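Chapter summary example.
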Amino acid sequence: MELTAEQSRAFMLGAMGVLRESLGIDTTLLKAQIIFEVANHPQIPQFELESRVDAAKSTVSRNVLDLTRQTSRKEPGPNLVVQLEDPEYRKRNLLELTTKGQSLMTKMVAEGNKAMSKIK
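The structure predicted for these 120 residues follows.
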């Protein structure tokens, strides 16, 4: 199913609304992209996100940390994403959504679909 620009916009705004409620006003589209990519590609190597979200390594790293249990500023985080050590290459991080992250993703998709369904 191909979406119109209006449907895509409605979905994005609905999903971002849920994310903003969870994370606060500091939420960016990049954080939403990271959550969607990790949800769609469990145990994705962190370096792969750079090309998937078209962002620099440092930007991806900072934003991933901001979605984990402890943010890049060493403050308590939302605990939506977990970084796992790759058993095949210990210097590489694999990313997965936590149970809380999976629940948030489900809410984001539901709200996005609800917003999109209102478009005629």
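To summarize the output: The two ends are 15 Å apart (CA to CA).
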